[in-house]
Amino acid sequence: MSGIGNRRDTMARNSNERFKAFCEIAKTRSILSVGISVFQKKAKNGNDVENNSDFLVQTFNVMLLRKDSFMVEPASLKFLLEHGFDFNTHYAKAIPYSTPQIKETKKDVNTISELFFEILRSSKPIVLHNGILDLVFLYQNFYTDLPSSLSTFLADLSVMFSAGVIDTKYIAEYHIGCSATYLNYIFKKR
Predict the structure, then answer these.
(1) In this predicted structure, what is the pLDDT of residue 19?
(2) Is the separation of the CB atoms in 33 and 62 below 8 Å?
(3) For residue 174, what is the DSSP state?
(4) Quick one: CA torsion of 17, 21, 23, 25, rounded to 10 degrees?
(5) Is 94 left (phi over 0), alpha (psi -120 to 50) or beta?
(6) Cα Rg of the chain, angstroms
């Protein structure tokens, strides 16, 4: 993301205020890349897929370049650089996209939006880490304008992702009781 906003606003104690802050961020910043991992359960012996835990995993990092203007935050750009994000490759090879609010001509296929709708049609659960901001960004950038109320947003998500949304940060914090919940820590702790 090109920015994640003012931490004070995004950590508001009132969930409706927090949602409003997230909406403002998603409307003014951009998604720079999307990581997608697809899991397929493999049968180990014979065709017994249900009783084993071997998976085939394919992971893709899709770099995106929003066509209209958006804000960038220096702290976010610095974070991305420190974690290996290559802005030269990004601007040279990223897939251009328009938000649903920008009307495209028929010849301009919005590939990433089509991929997003294909994921929705698959009716598979999605797994995110600290996913509420991700969901707000996905909704605004690939689905439609964000609703004004948190309750409408949550109702829409329950229809969009009918198989469920799993948040690994929530699991780490509230079910496992990890002292830190950033991904690198959780991965190394296991």
Answers:
(1) 93
(2) yes
(3) I
(4) -170
(5) beta
(6) 18
pLDDT in tens, 28-48: 999 999 999 988 888 776 555
Report yes or no on 69 lying in a domain.
yes
- 2 domain residue, yes or no: no
Answer yes or no: is 91 within a domain.
yes
Measure the CA–CA gap between 45 and 6, rounded to whole angstroms.
52
Query: Tokens 């899709």 appear where?
Result: 62
pLDDT in tens, 132-182: 899 999 999 999 999 999 999 999 999 999 999 999 888 888 888 887 887
- pLDDT, residue 66, reads 92
Are 133 and 22 contacting, i.e. CB atoms less than 8 angstroms apart?
yes
Find the CATH number of the domain harbouring 52.
Answer: 3.30.420.10
What the block records as the tokens of 89 is 């490759």
Q: Angle at Cα 138 formed by Cα 175 and Cα 158, nearest 5°? A: 55
Cβ-proximal residues to 151 (8 Å cutoff; 6+ apart), any chain:
none
Domain span at residue 55?
7-189
**Among the listed residues 161, 181, 160, the one whose alpha carbon sits nearest the alpha carbon of residue 170:** 181
